[in-house]
Amino acid sequence: MAKLFIVPTPIGNLEDITLRALNVLKAADLILCEDTRTTKNLLQHYAIEGKRCMAYHIFNEHEQVGNYIRMIQQVETTALVSDAGTPGISDPGFLLVREALKQEVEVECLPGPTAFVPALIQSGFPCSSFYFYGFLPHKKGKETLLKRFAEMEETVVFYESPHRLLKTLEKMVEVMGGEHPVAVAKELTKIHSFTFRGTLAEAVQYFENQPVKGEFVLIV
Ligand code: SAM
Question: Using an 8 Å Cβ cutoff, are 3 and 76 in contact?
Answer without folding.
Answer: yes
